[in-house]
Amino acid sequence: MIGYILGYWGAWLWGLNRTVCRTIAIEVGLQNSGMATGLAINVLQNAAAALGPAIFGPWMNISGALLAAWWRRSSLPPGGEGS
After folding, report:
1. What are the phi and psi torsion angles at 20 (to 5°)?
2. pTM higher than 0.90, yes or no?
């Protein structure tokens, strides 16, 4: 959730429109748990380090889909512009 919030508000602080803020929030909030798991196992040689990405991977996918669906239903002015 912190990634979604920081992504959105960081983009907003840069003065980007709402559509871009939402896009950046999803990009920041969804991390690559498959890559994180692979790195933990192959580079760190530690299965315990892969536990975090294995647990939070499904959460990221579910929360990202829910957020995208919610934002899709919320109204934006024509063209997706607005603050």
Report:
1. -70, -40
2. no
Q: Which long-range contacts (CB under 8 A, 24 or more apart) does 73-79 make?
A: 76/18, 76/19
Q: Per the structure block, which two tokens stand in for 80? A: 């997706």
Under DSSP, is residue 39 helix (H, G, I), strand (E, B) or coil? helix
Residue in the block written with tokens 């536990």: 51
CA–CA distances in Å: residue 43 to residues 17, 39, 53: 39, 5, 15
- Let me know how long the chain is: 83
Instruction: Tell me the pLDDT tens digit for each residue of 25-71.
Output: 998 888 777 788 888 889 988 888 888 888 888 888 899 999 999 98
Q: For 33, what's the count of Cα atoms within 13 Å in the CB-facing half-sphere?
A: 15
| Residue the block writes with tokens 């579910």 | 62
Terminal alpha carbon distance of the chain: 21
Give the position of tokens 């939070």: 56
